[in-house]
């Protein structure tokens, strides 16, 4: 009975938690700016993961077919955490550098997290 009550309590607490925020961005990288984009994105990601408790994951990707296309996948614990990130110095720096390193091609897609499972992974 105790296990059932614990499971019910956990289930209830999960159902009242705010929904996680997941965003996907497709970004045009200006000609000759791939290295600068990589450096700014890396700084934004590493600083956000280190300093923002509600930033759960940030992944920068590059198209294999078109090196001028970059992608960013972000996961936040909730909307409040996303708003904290948007006000952070590293994100403001990304915005400041964007006109120099990105083209006008910017596509934002909010996503709904359906299922999550992971293993600890550190890319080489």
TrEMBL record:
Q: Native species of this protein? A: Avibacterium volantium
UniProt entry tagged with the keyword Signal: yes
Query: Which InterPro entries does the record match to this protein?
Result: ABM_dom, Dimeric_a/b-barrel
Annotated ABM domain residues: 21-111
This protein's source sits in the domain of life called: Bacteria
Name-wise, this protein is: Autoinducer-2 (AI-2) modifying protein LsrG
Q: Which Pfam families match?
A: ABM
Signal peptide interval: 1-18
| SUPFAM superfamilies reported in the protein's UniProt record | Dimeric alpha+beta barrel
| Keywords from the UniProt entry | Signal
């Amino acid at each position: 009975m105790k296990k059932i009550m614990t499971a019910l309590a956990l289930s209830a607490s999960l159902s009242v938690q705010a929904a996680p925020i997941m965003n996907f961005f497709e970004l045009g990288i200006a000609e000759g700016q791939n290295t600068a984009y990589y450096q700014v994105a890396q700084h934004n990601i590493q600083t956000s993961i280190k300093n923002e408790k509600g930033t759960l994951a940030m992944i920068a990707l590059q198209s294999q077919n078109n090196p001028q296309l970059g992608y960013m996948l972000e996961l936040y614990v909730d909307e409040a955490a996303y708003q904290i990130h948007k006000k952070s110095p590293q994100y403001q720096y990304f915005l400041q550098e964007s006109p120099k390193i990105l083209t006008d091609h910017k596509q934002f897609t909010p996503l709904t997290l359906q299922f999550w499972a992971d293993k600890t992974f550190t890319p080489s």
